[in-house]
Amino acid sequence: MTAETSQTLDRGLRVLKLLADTDHGLTVTELSNRLGVNRTVVYRLLATLEQHALVRRDLGGRARVGLGVLRLGRQVHPLVREAALPALRSLAEDIGATAHLTLVDGTEALAVAVVEPTWTDYHVAYRAGFRHPLDRGAAGRAILAARQGALIEPGYTLTHGELEAGASGAAAPLVGITGLEGSVGVVMLADAVPERVGPRVVDAAREVADALR
């Protein structure tokens, strides 16, 4: 800790991080041990976080992340979109296909940023806000492959006709970003994705991941 930082705020944020890393919640004693502070401090931290709905405690007294974090999370999409746009724009212009950034939203894949090429005669219309099941389409399949540790070289996923008849897609997952599951991809009107597209999508996903770190 430095003179410019708040010890109480630091501890509160550490509580949230600890709770976010567990599915079954933590007791006051467990939090006390992990933070290295006494139980009274933990009680005060939890009470404050509960007032803002960032933490909730079940009947057994175990603390968990509260629904208030969802309201904060909704503000993440615009920030992520802004950071990803340069890489998506470059990808769309280079490939001549619609580029998109897709994030996990519950059990669905949600397109949060889309860039269409400016020089093509025609391309697939794809809009931010479009949702589809994670197990359909290249964007969702790339995310699931990364989640399951099944994504191997060359590092991208290809599909054809799963979301739109006659359209093919290529996508690569975002790697190395804690707490964020997503992919970068392109969709094009073609029977098959050209060979150079997959590696280019992987490069774009790496650029977006770097921008978000």
TrEMBL record:
Residues in HTH iclR-type domain copies: 6-67
Gene Ontology BP annotations: negative regulation of DNA-templated transcription
UniProt key word Transcription: yes
Keywords: DNA-binding, Transcription, Transcription regulation
Signal peptide interval: none
Ranges of residues in domain IclR-ED: 68-213
InterPro entries referenced in this protein's UniProt entry, alphabetically: ArsR-like_HTH, GAF-like_dom_sf, HTH_MetabolicPath_Reg, Tscrpt_reg_IclR_C, Tscrpt_reg_IclR_N, WH-like_DNA-bd_sf, WH_DNA-bd_sf
CDD domains per the UniProt record, alphabetical: HTH_ARSR (cd00090)
Protein name: IclR family transcriptional regulator
